[in-house]
Amino acid sequence: MGLFDRIKRVVSANLNDLVSKAEDPEKMLEQAVAEMQEDLVQLKQGVAQAIAAQKRTEKQYNDAQNEINKWQRNAQLALQKADENLARQALERKKTFTDTSNALKASLDQQTTQVETLKRNLIQLESKISEAKTKKEMLRARITAAKAQEQLQGMVRGMNTSSAMAAFERMEEKVLTQEARAQSAAELAGADLENQFAALESSDVDDELAALKAQISIPGGSPNQPQLPQQTTPPKTNKNEVVDAELDSLRKQLDQM
């Protein structure tokens, strides 16, 4: 392959690509229908001209037929009048119109066939234009839907989905953290309440133990006997008696425990 052929092919490919990119489907459909409408107008004009030519040929043919009939009658009249020369001239004129009539008849048949063909083509073109208009509306709707879908896809691609999902995950983690804190606070509150009740129970034991210690520490006292007020002037007794009395009191308290 020569260099110029390669360059020609590259240029043609680039031009075709540019043309393809420049083609707007909706505008191309409008242009196609407009061109078909122009063809329809031209075809109607052609059919009208063909019909007019057919009518002229048909009139000429009918006139030729009338002339043939007229010269036929003239030839018969000349023979009736015994003018054979005049009858011959009449027949010659008849032959001329007969030849013309035959030619007109062939042309008329041809024109009639042409007009019928043009009429069928006109009907077909009108049907194709109607079909093209229907398809154009359908394709226009599809083009609109395709453009909308393309725009939607572009919007979806433009969205930062990963960032949005990460934000959702962060919010979910915060909610879980807050729920864990709330649950921990509830558990701590329950534990503190149990400790308070335990403190109440232990305080009763401590109070009882303190009372018992107080009873034991009083000389001559008993658990059921209240403490007597201290005398301002102690009685004069023997020291050994006081000790013995205190020991006896302590034994009684131990026995009662």
From TrEMBL:
InterPro entries: PspA_VIPP1. Signal peptide: none annotated. Keywords: Coiled coil. Residues 223-237 have a biased composition (Low complexity). Residues 216-242 are annotated as: Disordered. Residues 26-149 form a coiled coil. Belongs to the PspA/Vipp/IM30 family. This is PspA/IM30 family protein. It comes from Brasilonema bromeliae SPC951. The lineage of its organism: Bacteria, Bacillati, Cyanobacteriota, Cyanophyceae, Nostocales.
